[in-house]
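This part of the workshop introduces the protein records we will be handling. A learned vocabulary of local backbone shapes supplies the integers on the structure line. Getting from the letters to the tokens is the skill we practise here. As an example, a complete record with its sequence and its structure tokens follows.
=====
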Amino acid sequence: MRGPVVQKSNHTFVHPRYLLTPCQVSNSGPVHQGSAAYRDGSWSISSAGKCGSQSLSTSRPGPRVRAVASAEHLEAAQPSSSTQKKHDLSLAVGTYTLPHPDKESYGGEDALFFSSSASAVGVADGVGGWSADGINPAEYSRSLMRLVQESLEAALPAQSSTDPAASSNGSSPASAEAQASQPEQSAGEAPGSEAKLSGPPAAASSDRGPGPVDKDSAGNSSSAQAGHPSASIDAQQKASVSPQQMLLDALAYAHKGTRLPGSSTACVLQLDADSSTVSSAVLGDSIFVHVRNGEVLHRAKAGLHFFDCPFQFGDAPEHTSGTDTAEDADMSSFDVQPNDILVVATDGIWDNLQDADIVGLLPTSPAGLDKAAQAIGDLARENALNPEYDSPYAAEARKAGHDLGWWEKVSQGRVTSEGYKLAHLTGGKLDDITIAVGMIVAA
């Protein structure tokens, strides 16, 4: 199976590393991504390669932490009726998923969650090279996001668990597990799927509770819920944990709990209404932008080992020989105010759209979030299929030394008013698309 393709007229460009293996995180070939959403405790499947053979370094320093200042607050927006309030601010989110055309039968390999109770949203991009070994890469990314959500919700103050609004949407870890295992949400039953799925890959069966299965040195299984970063601390201690540390703990918990073959990027954001700040954790090339009044105030930095080989979680050493960790995530914290917008997406968006394209489609009220997410996703797919589009992905490929040969540059060039212009590598990258568009809403 070949990797993502960039086209120039009749020319097909395949990154040479796609013919090798993803960077020691798996021993399989090319990588694609795909889409499934996990929102407040249930999965929805939409019908709508990274790395060469280089090993990962695990000796990098701890998380990179950045803070981004913001200007004064804008005029407050009206809250959405479906948005859970948390103090003065809340987070409203619209989502859209569009799998790679070859992966529609099983919903693709991306994953997404939104927790209104935790004011958190995240996306993950499963590394598709594992499919060469008969493994569905979506199982890893979905498990990762489910456990991140579980961790963030477990860290909520105790009174949140008795909030009727919070419990009614199935956002507690227990109800998340129950809803995720419902037959109607199960994937893999559609014809043509390469590997069977049964909803999100439960790291623990229902009789063990919602915690992921952990194995001791003797191979005995036990629930890792007891090892949850929030399990042994009281409410006062929880209050002293910084929002960034909560995210870091959630990623570490999810990484440890996902004992599956596979690997995945991750991007998670959480609103802290008390301080009017958003904290973020980014591992790999699933990233986000923070927009205010049509201006991008903050753009997350993608973590790459080299071109098209992002940082990624994997289960080492049992299933892979190396992995990045939560400590490698790029951490940031920035002020937010009503009407600010957060666009969180896998690389199916960022490889095929400029930031200006995204900003031009953003809504002015929470009611337009879902439509905006769909419009952005559809434009990304349109560009991905356009061989003449000079995509961000093609531009990065050229910077990395991947371009047309000299004869192709000459033969495919054209005469312009400034003379003969040589052709160069263009085209979008056909991939799975997963996007969440969030708006900060005043209570």
Notes: Residues 138-154 form the longest helix (17 residues).
